[in-house]
């Protein structure tokens, strides 16, 4: 099983990194690296995190976790885990 970042999630992580970097380069690196580390380990236990409560009609394949005030949503498929969204927890989950 491989982890794939969607076209929407990659720039969202980069934007978060850039925003944090303005105040603290050290924290920006820490947040980015820890989010990436967690996603790299998802194939070991893809269902470790709970089903995404904001996803409508979720059959259990859509999951999410929060780290450093960022919510990372992902989809578990047969051969891959797709990181679909990265957003700050103070933002609305609309449009999902």
The CATH architecture name reads 2-Layer Sandwich
Q: How are the strands ordered across the major sheet? A: 1-4-3-2
Work out the count of structural domains. Answer: 1
Q: How does the helix and strand content classify structurally?
A: alpha+beta
Order of helices and strands: EHHEEE
CATH superfamily: RelE-like
Give the helix level as a range of percent: 25-40%
Beta content: 25-35%
Measured on Cα atoms, how large is the radius of gyration?
13 Å
Strand elements, count: 4
- Describe the sheet with the most strands: 4 strands, mixed
Stretches where pLDDT is under 50 for at least 5 consecutive residues are none
Can you count the helices?
Answer: 2
Average pLDDT figure = 93
CATH class: Alpha Beta
- Say what the CATH topology is: YaeB-like fold
The rough form would be described as globular
Q: State the separation between the terminal residues, measured CA to CA.
A: 25 Å
Summarize the structure.
This protein has 96 residues and is of the alpha+beta class.
Structure description:
By secondary structure, the protein is α+β, with helices and mostly antiparallel strands. The protein has one domain (2-88): RelE-like (YaeB-like fold, 2-Layer Sandwich). 33% of the residues lie in helices and 27% in strands. It is built from 2 helices and 4 strands, in the order E-H-H-E-E-E. It has a 4-stranded mixed sheet. A hairpin with a 3-residue loop joins strand 3 and strand 4 (80-88). Helix 1 runs antiparallel to helix 2 (25-41). The model has no long low-confidence stretch (mean pLDDT 93).
């Amino acid at each position: 099983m491989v982890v794939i970042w969607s076209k929407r999630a990659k720039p969202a992580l980069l934007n978060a990194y850039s925003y944090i970097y303005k105040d603290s380069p050290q924290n920006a690196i820490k947040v980015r690296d820890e989010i990436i580390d967690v996603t790299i380990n998802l194939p070991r236990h893809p269902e470790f995190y709970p089903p995404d409560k904001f996803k409508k009609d979720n059959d259990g394949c859509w999951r999410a976790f929060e780290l450093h005030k960022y919510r990372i949503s992902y989809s578990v498929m047969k051969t891959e885990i797709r990181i679909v969204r990265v957003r700050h927890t103070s933002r609305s989950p609309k449009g999902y």
